[in-house]
Amino acid sequence: MHPVVSPSARLRHSLRAGMHALILSSLLAGATVSPLSAQTVDDDDGVASQQLNLPKDVTVFGKSDPNVRKATAIVNGRIITGTDVDQRLALIVAANGGKVAPEEKERLRVQVLRNLIDETLQIQEAAANDIRIDKAEIDQSYERVAANFRQSPAQFDEYLRKQGSSPASIRRQIEGELAWSRLLRRNIQPFVNVSEDEVKSVIDRMNAAKGSDEYRIGEIYLSATPENQQQIVANARNIIEQIKQGGSFAAYARQFSEASTAAVGGDLGWVRPAQLPDELAKAAGEMQVGQIAGPISVPGGVSVIYVMDKRKVLTADPRDALLSLKQLSVNFPAGTTKEQASARAASFAAQVKAIKGCGQANDLGAKIGADVVDNDNVKVRDLPPQLQDILLGLQVGEATPPFGSISDGVRVLVVCGRDDAASAAAPNPAQIMAQLEEERVNKRARIYLRDLRRDAVIDYN
Q: Which keywords has UniProt assigned to this entry (predicted)?
């Protein structure tokens, strides 16, 4: 989930060997608004708190099987076909390396249909307000997505077809995100006001909180009612299980989260516990970087959270230090056993210990037949977590212990230079005001979409 510094392709590849490939769903975020706060608060108008006055003893007349779902729908006259669902579902399957159980696919299909209905409502409401996204603008966003895969649009078209999806499905998703974002900017954002006193209050709180923990959180929010709470919790647990098995958190957030931050993979940005609902703050405070937790009951539904990173408020983070590194690596011949690899790694480690500074690394590499890769301006936090603490404890000229695997070979990193992180500064008032405004826009956006669902005419085929 962490952004990756990409100075040298070879070093980046070797350090990230075995990690997940870039996921399509996390790349589309470039066409959307920036992430800010979790949308897990009660609606302002109080509708959620109204009682339905239901009888204590309920007699059901007729039969209804909640496990039987129709595959397609007509939303205010716009048809969502089974093919639309299949193609969007294929993106989720691809994000999980194609490893999704048949019964899980059926559950995902229901959720995908719900998301397509919301997407359709958003596009229809934008059109009703004379907001239409030009084909040229969609093409530009699509080209950026293809470029992230180092492919031309034509090559990306073919890639999507091989995955069982289609260019039309991605373009439709881009259109929905752009249209909804533009609609919010027109109909909601102009009526959201933040005072200078509120901004000053935030700055004062940040200064008072200097040195306390701050988290970068990802959230998947699923709305729930007392009637479907059990089913939604089960859905959340299934999502967690899929992510633990290698699925992309960002991909699942984009497809399933009902918060406005879904468009950016559920990324809430950097937040302090006091900025989160109590339930999420408590969970985040007990988690380590890279952990996922949930389902957590919050007002209006449940949340799944992922701790992407952690730092101290207004305090320089050692992991923001920039390193100059040399990597020495040797590969194992095919058929190498674990014992042989361990012996070779021990010999390699003993030879590397003789290095006294980076000036000798190239000579030693040539002597022992190791590949040597130079890399400057590598931020510590962008390296694999297992290496971060090791590198922070090394002085210039020292090397890490050998690491790797039989398939990837063994390697070490030598620290050639270090530029320590500068002291962190508080965001300026304009940045804070923009964040507060965005938080309020996101909250009202949920209410807006809820009203669209309430008034929609939906025919399930």
A: Chaperone, Isomerase, Periplasm, Rotamase, Signal
Give the torsion through C-alpha atoms of 430, 432, 433, 435, to 10 deg. 120
Q: Which two tokens stand for residue 316?
A: 């320089």
Burial class (CB within 10 angstroms; exposed 0-12, middle 13-18, buried 19+) of 280: buried
Determine what percent of the chain is predicted with pLDDT higher than 70: 80
Are 274 and 367 in a shared domain? Answer: no
Quickly tell me which residue has 């897990």 as its tokens.
Answer: 40
Q: At 182, which CATH number? A: 3.10.50.40
In a domain, 341, yes or no: yes
> Smallest Cα–Cα separation from 25: which of 232, 236, 247, 258?
247
Q: Same domain, yes or no, for 331 and 310?
A: no
Cα–Cα distance measured from residue 370 to residue 364, given in angstroms and rounded to the nearest whole number: 8
* Domain extent for 292: 17-45+69-315+428-460
Q: What is the pLDDT of residue 3?
A: 33
How many structural domains is the chain composed of?
2
User: Does 104 or 315 have the greater pLDDT score?
Assistant: 104
Q: With H, G, I as helix, E, B as strand and everything else as coil, classify residue 371.
A: strand
Q: pTM of this prediction?
A: 0.52
Mean pLDDT of 296-309: 87
- Bond from prior residue into 427 cis (ω within 30 degrees of 0): no
Q: How far apart are CA 460 and CA 70, in angstroms?
A: 6
Mean pLDDT of 215-227: 87
CA 173 to chain centre: 17
Residues 410, 432 share a domain: no
CA distance 103 to 234: 13
Say which DSSP state 378 is in.
Answer: E
Which among 243, 259, 127 is positioned nearest to 182, based on CA atoms?
127
- Residues sharing a CB contact under 8 Å with residue 27, sequence separation 6 or more, in sequence order: 145, 148, 149
Which residue is associated with the tokens 């690394």? 361
Helix (H, G, I), strand (E, B) or coil at 253: helix
Phi, psi of 294 (to 5 degrees): 140, 180
Residue 278 and residue 202: Cα distance in Å, rounded?
A: 18
Residue 380 and residue 265 share a domain: no
Q: What is the DSSP string of 330-369?
A: EPPPTT--HHHHHHHHHHHHHHHTT--SGGGHHHHHHHHT
Q: What does the buried/exposed string (b/e) look like for 105-114 if buried means 16 or more CB atoms within 10 Å of the residue's CB?
A: eebbbebbbe
CA 210 vs. chain centroid, Å, equals 27
Round to whole Å and give the CA distance between 88 and 424.
Answer: 41
Residue 54 within a domain = no
Mean pLDDT across the chain: 76
